[in-house]
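Most newcomers find our protein records easier to grasp once they have seen one. There is nothing in a record beyond a sequence line and a structure line. Getting from the letters to the tokens is the skill we practise here. An example says more than a description, so a record of this kind follows:
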Amino acid sequence: MQIQVSQLIVKFLQQLGVDTIFGMPGAHILPVYDDLYDSSIQTVLVKHEQGAAFMAGGYARVSGRIGACITTAGPGASNLITGIANAYADKLPMIVITGEAPTHIFGRGGLQESSGEGGSIDQTALFSGVTRYHKLIERTDYLTNVLNQAARQLVSDVPGPVVLSIPVNVQKELVDAAILEKLPTLKPPPKLQISPQLLEQCAEMIRQAQRPVILAGYGCLQSAQARAELRRFSDHLNIPVATSLKGKGAIDERSELALGSLGVTSSGHAMHYFMEEADLIILLGAGFNERTSYVWKQGVLNPSKIIQVDRNVAQLEKVFKADLAIQSDLGDFLKSINACCVPQGLEPKPRPDIAAFKRRIDQQNIAHNTVIFGEKFALVKTLFARLEQHFDEGIVLVDDNIIFAQNLYRVKADDLFVPNTGVSSLGHAIPAAIGARFALKKPMFAILGDGGFQMCCMEIMTAVNYQIPLTIIMFNNQTLGLIRKNQHQQYQQRFLDCDFQNPDYALLAQSFGINHFKITSDADCQRVFELADFHQGINLIELMVDQDAYPNYSSRR
């Protein structure tokens, strides 16, 4: 049976399991949109294409499934780049469909042409550095191979964005519907088998250690069952657990063995434990990047022995030499090591008093004036304490601000914390949270500052249009806080292009038709948790922060 390429693309999306696609139509992508009309895929009209990419990324991040977005040619496609780059950095499976001008006008100055011909924008070059696979489909005779390559990248061990750009005339061409039947069954690559010798070596290193510690990263959140197996492993052997920022929530942070986050913007509990107590560090799916390593601070890992486990071989020994490096899915590794704990005779270590250790570090921080949050942040502390206590069920925090929640919110077993760690783009939280809510029906929070809010606030209307429950927590200090902090710390308070005027957010929320709460006191904070509908409503919570309040850390930037 002959069908249009546009219909084939829609059927391909359905075959990938796509049920929601975020985007904005234009003339050069309308054939695909017309076939979406009769499909089971829900289309979501965004306010800006960057929002579509962030929504697709948020959807993929919380669900583990393929996120999808669609736009027209030219600016429609180029507006996606930051969101695609974010998904690339976070290794999120995302498929992007863009239109293109018809092939017969390539090189002749066609409207929104981006073929690279005749001096036009070269869209392939634009996307080449932020995609796993990108193809401008100029003909249909190799379409089977293109779709095959795209699908393989999306389900690979290290996935990322795939972009298919299709000229509008090619979308209308007829092809054999059997193309889809020629594609192989899509399934994840086979899991690596861990040799018994490596497990024995790992067990022996743990046996010999007196004070092992675990650093759990994003890999422990990506892998099925890894969180449960990590909890068993830690509890059985009495090994404390710290997380990277991206791995926050790999262990319930209310646990007696939870050290909190390791990283330059954290309280320092984990760093001091690593440097002062540990003799074996077990890195599980955690990269040792700039933030986690305290800008590669000497002594954070040394002189401890190191076991590193990661599913991505490129991460193994990337910035340090490990005593034992194992390529494995984290869930598989932890399940295997748990299974061999008893046969190998691994006895529990003496249970460390992590609460007492944290109190000692806190006292040191007070004595040395290195407490990360002073009194000016009291209201922020109150907000996160109430947020943590308010929900029995799990919630999702999509966080652009990062530093507050990293230190002040203890992620529970059923929570999901989504920090903006990709390319750390302002304007991510609101659209990413909207995309996440399409995939996961939990109370959804977008956390960001007023600078980032103004970059993405129109996407609130996307939530309104599709009745997506969402609570936005916005910190209002009328400045780009990180820039102002650095100009204060390192540039003699020569403040430039960081401060700005804000709109009246109560009136803005009213214009959107959403709820607004302003927090200037503890009483205001209590009122929010008494009145706000976090399950079905759309809320903007505005918390006032002193413009001259700076978290006490230095990123050396």
Observations:
- Residues 144 and 179 are 6 Å apart (CA to CA).
